Amino acid sequence: MKDILIITNYFPPETGAASNRIYHLAEGLQKHNFVVTVVTPLPNYPKGEVFKAYRGQFKHTSTENDITIHRLWLYASNSKNKLLRLFAMLSYSFSLIWFFMWNKIPKKVIIQSPPLLVAFTSVFFLRSKKRKVILNVSDLWPLAGLELGAFKKNFSYKLLEKIERFNYKHADLILGQSQEILSHVNSIFPKKETFLYRNYPDFDAALPNLQTDSSMKLKMVYAGLLGVAQGILKLCQELDYTKVQFHIYGAGAEQIAIQELIKKHPELDIIYHGEISRTALHQELINYDFTIIPLLNRIYGSVPSKIFEYARLGIPMLYFGGGEGEYLINKHELGWVAESSNYKDLNTVISKIELSKLELTNRKKIQLTALENFDFNNQLIQLVEVI
Predict the structure, then answer these.
(1) Average pLDDT over all residues of the chain
(2) Is 135 helix (H, G, I), strand (E, B) or coil?
(3) How many whole angstroms separate alpha carbon 302 and alpha carbon 177?
(4) N or C: which end of the chain has fewer CB atoms below 10 A?
């Protein structure tokens, strides 16, 4: 049995791709004879408030499925105020330092990045010739922040770039969720050991059974974070509803604005369903004709995990985000692609969707593609060999 520590900002009972990704990694390593410990903040995402069951605690330790989980204090906030958000990240970093001082740290450590400052704190204090530091990079910060408009190329941005480089330099192995991430890392440190570790799902899915009704509008669904990066509010405003009815599941910063838009413009064929559990969501998603995966702007290095999850469910996808995700949709014939940020092209693509591409035979083909190409356990076996 080998000990391994995973340091992450997100973990269940929080929802979303980030927490699911780390949970499945921890569970998978545990099944491969690792003694897994997870260090994470008290649950607070996405609302920026510590969950009721954990309030008033400085540290909460539990064992779940033979995984030891230490949840540490932080100042929870999802405020738009940059200083408050910075303090929230620093508060978790301070808790991590306290944890490192009073606990024995295993010889192998996986550190989730971003957040960049949390990863920096972990790499800085845990780098050692006797310890293997593994950096799991899911998005390229600060570059992604620059492309989203959250940063400008000023002193702060240059400082974050130096922190990013420090993290890469002192990591013994870097895991990246996309080839673009690994290319970026190797452009800075050509000899750095890297491993492509995509966010493949780990769940059993029933065979799809939907039969599309040609007499009605196509039912398009989005499920996930209603944040600025996804651009769902703008999508609602720009869609041509002649052929499509738009269903939305999720929560986030744009939720209230989306609900207000629906209320003020009942002529728009939009139905908001709120937020439901992942298991319940899977049961709902298979009832729709196709799903849309949008990004407001193309983000270098980003590959939405929804691609792999929806393929496992056998759901045709309309990808609207550019980059490597677009390449995967085309390569594996998982659906359609519209030019990033071009809403005219998006509406044209929707208007040309053929019913034959939505029916049962094609859905089973998509699901078979996922089983052959996006297998979590096969990927995990390869990862275990390199860590």
Answers:
(1) 91
(2) strand
(3) 8
(4) N
What is the model's pLDDT at position 202?
85
Confirm whether 212 is domain-assigned.
Answer: no
Number of domains in the chain: 2
Distance CA 74, CA 95 (A): 7
User: Residue 190 and residue 374: Cα distance in Å, rounded?
Assistant: 27
CATH number of 257's domain: 3.40.50.2000
**Class of residue 159 by CB neighbours under 10 A (exposed 0-12, middle 13-18, buried 19+):** exposed
- State the Cα–Cα distance between residues 122 and 54, nearest whole angstrom: 24
* 135 shares its domain with 236: no
Could you give the strand order of the β-sheet that contains 194-196, starting from the edge strand earlier in sequence?
59-64, 67-72, 34-41, 2-7, 108-113, 132-137, 173-176, 194-196
Judged by average pLDDT, the poorest of 72-81, 99-108, 219-228, 343-352 is 72-81
Nearest to 8 by CA among 182, 138, 186: 138
Statement to judge: residues 330 and 223 lie in one domain: yes
Question: How far apart are the C-alpha atoms of 138 and 140, rounded to whole Å?
Answer: 7
* Beta bridge partners of residue 61, listed in sequence order: 70
pTM for the complete prediction?
Answer: 0.86
- Type of residue numbered 118: V
How far is the C-alpha of 336 from the C-alpha of 201, rounded, in Å?
A: 21
Report the C-alpha gap between 289 and 247 in whole angstroms: 11
Question: Could you tell me which of 342, 352, 336, 367 has the C-alpha nearest to residue 218?
Answer: 352
SS3 content of the chain, % helix, strand, coil (to 5): 40, 20, 40
Q: What is the DSSP letter of 129?
A: T
Q: Name the band, by pLDDT with cuts 50, 70 and 90, for residue 252.
A: confident
- What are the residues whose beta carbons fall under 8 Å from the beta carbon of 76, sequence distance 6 or more? 41, 42, 44, 48, 49, 50, 88
Torsion of CA 239, 366, 280, 137, to 10 degrees: -80
What DSSP state is assigned to residue 240?
-
pLDDT (0 to 100) of residue 3: 96
Classify the phi-psi angles of 224: left when phi > 0, otherwise alpha if psi is within -120 to 50, otherwise beta. Answer: left
